[in-house]
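Entry 12.
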Amino acid sequence: MIPAAFEYRRVGSAEEAVSTLAELGDEAKLLAGGHSLLPLMKLRLASPSVLIDVGRLRDLSFVRDDGDQVSIGALTRHHDVEGSALLRSEVPLLAHVAGEVGDPQVRHRGTIGGSIAHGDPASDLPAAVLALGGTMVVRGPAGTREIPATEFFRGFLETALEPDELLTEIRVPKMAGAGWSFQKFNRRAQDWAIVGVAAVGAQAGGGIALVNMASTPVRAAAVERAVAQGSSATDAAALAPEGLDPPSDLNASPEFRRHLATVLVRRALEEVAAGHP
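Predicted 3D structure (tokens):
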């Protein structure tokens, strides 16, 4: 399909992007890699009257060592997240998950900020950032604020970003050598996950997050509690679907997704305990 007509504006700085958003309000959307927004526009599920192109803001493309955490600019391409020596060393889960996104073409154009801001529950990177206990840094007319990942995802394709705010940075704690795992079940290598799991060991906070098991990326809170109390991987994994309402679509029923979550969480917990990688 063809999107509705729109005006195109290219901005030269984050400040200009924020001021343009403040000027235009809900009529405008930010364009970075375009892999999330453009398909919605083609289906007429989104019809912004103005697209604000932030894709060339190179000052928002970086991976930086910030002491006990690593900061990633929102416009950092998936390929650059995957290939970052710093992330491979200090936050290997995030580097690995970035390499699981789509295909090489998507990874060379798509950005981590676009994936996070889109808030798709079937997306891999939001779950990884949730499991790591990350923080989103956003900029608006009133200045900069930090939003914990646990508070960022609010509903289906809905986040805590205000219409006049720009996601500028994602901060994740270093993993301190903790074990980790990312499990994903899909029909084909490049498909969205039918169900996925991102998990880290206790040294990295013990977070376990699920892909495509609710209307938002979500932590498996019951599993985390069980693991902290010393439950076996099998017993803890049996709690993976607790309190969740997984979607039904052409790929899987809610019942099948609950079963997959149990199996994949058990595998992830076993891999974390074995000290992966």
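Annotation: The chain is about 35% helix and 25% strand. The mean pLDDT is 92.
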